[in-house]
Design a protein that fits this description.
Structural class: alpha/beta
Oligomer: single chain
Strand order of the largest sheet: 4-3-7-1-2-6-5
CATH superfamily of the largest domain: Nucleotide-binding domain of ferredoxin-NADP reductase (FNR) module
CATH class of the largest domain: Alpha Beta
Number of strands: 16
CATH architecture of the largest domain: 3-Layer(aba) Sandwich
Number of domains: 2
Bound molecules: flavin-adenine dinucleotide, FE2/S2 (inorganic) cluster
Shape: globular
Order of helices and strands: EEHEEEEHEEHEHEEHEHEEEE
CATH topology of the largest domain: Rossmann fold
């Protein structure tokens, strides 16, 4: 894995909703080497507060040497990031971690929930390229409401993939959970389900896939400190009794390897 640490220029900062932002950052090296499901660690402040970088999935890359992240404002780090100005430089480390394993057999089903939608766009693009002669990926997206879902949804619709949506309040698509949408699909046995979202959602997706003997990969968004396997801050329990590092063994794991504790 080639990790790059560099000062990257913030080319564009877009406020997509009251608390969701999309940043376009310039880095030829990261844009050229990133794979879907990988992430970057971003230093959100210029001084030492907050000290630790924050992890964000790579939303998409471009051949013009830029990449994007999409994030929700949660605490101190993301608040600072939301206030960064275009032209500023940010210290970024990446691309990090193990991304999704792309499958060419069967149907590819992408399930994203909340900000877990972020890694799905890059994945959908790569799958479209890799499986050009096959059925396009089926994308299932869930969020709290239309406001949260719409800004990312339009990027998927622009790709021409089939998208099914669900919102908790029924303001867009199915009124309910994105897993309801997954339950209604009947994919061929050799299909692959790719998932990212809140832990209960991923555990539910993993269970549905296990019941139907479908392969499933999930991206776990455990809080991280170093992002490189050095601090043991991101351990997740595995079925075999051992622990994995979300940052370096993951963030993408085969769902059946994870010990799902809620
Ligand atoms: C691999 C990976 C990829 C990610 N990709 C994205 C992305 O694309 N878009 C996005 O919006 N977010 C993403 N996240 C989550 C994002 O990193 C956190 O929201 C961010 O670090 C919060 O930083 P903060 O300083 O604003 O909040 P903090 O002040 O650090 O935290 C505020 C509160 O949120 C809790 N918290 C922080 N991070 C997490 C977490 N990962 N899981 C559960 N609780 C947490 C803290 O415990 C605290 O209670 C990703 C996380 C990981 C590990
Ligand atoms: S974040 Fe330090 S080991 Fe994973």
């Amino acid at each position: 894995m080639n990790q790059i640490q560099e000062k990257v220029q913030l080319i564009r900062s877009e406020r997509l909703t009251a608390d969701i932002f999309r940043l376009t950052l310039a880095s030829q090296a990261i844009a050229a080497s990133a794979a879907p499901g990988q992430f970057v660690m971003v230093r959100t402040g210029t001084a030492h507060d907050p000290l630790l970088r924050r992890p964000f999935s790579i939303y998409q890359t471009s051949s013009d040497g830029t990449f994007q992240i999409v994030f929700k404002v949660i605490g101190r780090g993301t608040t600072l990031l939301a206030h960064c100005r275009e032209g500023e430089e940010l210290s970024v480390l990446g691309p990090l971690g193990r991304g999704y394993r792309l499958e060419q057999k069967g149907q590819n089903i992408l399930v994203g929930g909340g900000m877990g939608i972020a890694p799905m766009l890059f994945l959908a693009k790569r799958l479209l390229k890799k499986t050009a002669l096959q059925e396009p990926p089926q994308v299932l997206l869930g969020a709290r409401n239309k406001e949260e879902l719409q800004p990312m949804l339009v990027d998927f619709q622009a790709l021409g993939v089939r998208v099914l949506t669900a919102t908790d309040d029924g303001s867009l698509g199915h009124h309910g959970l994105v897993t309801d949408r997954l339950r209604k699909l009947h994919p061929a046995p050799e299909s692959m389900v790719y998932c990212c979202g809140p832990k209960p959602m991923m555990a539910a997706v993993a269970m549905i896939c296990r019941e139907r003997s479908l392969a499933c990969q999930v991206s776990v968004e455990t809080a991280m400190a170093c992002g490189m396997g050095a601090c043991l801050g991101c351990t997740i329990p595995l079925q075999d009794g051992s622990y994995g590092h979300a940052c370096s063994d993951g963030p993408v794991f085969d769902a059946e390897r994870i010990l799902w504790t809620l």
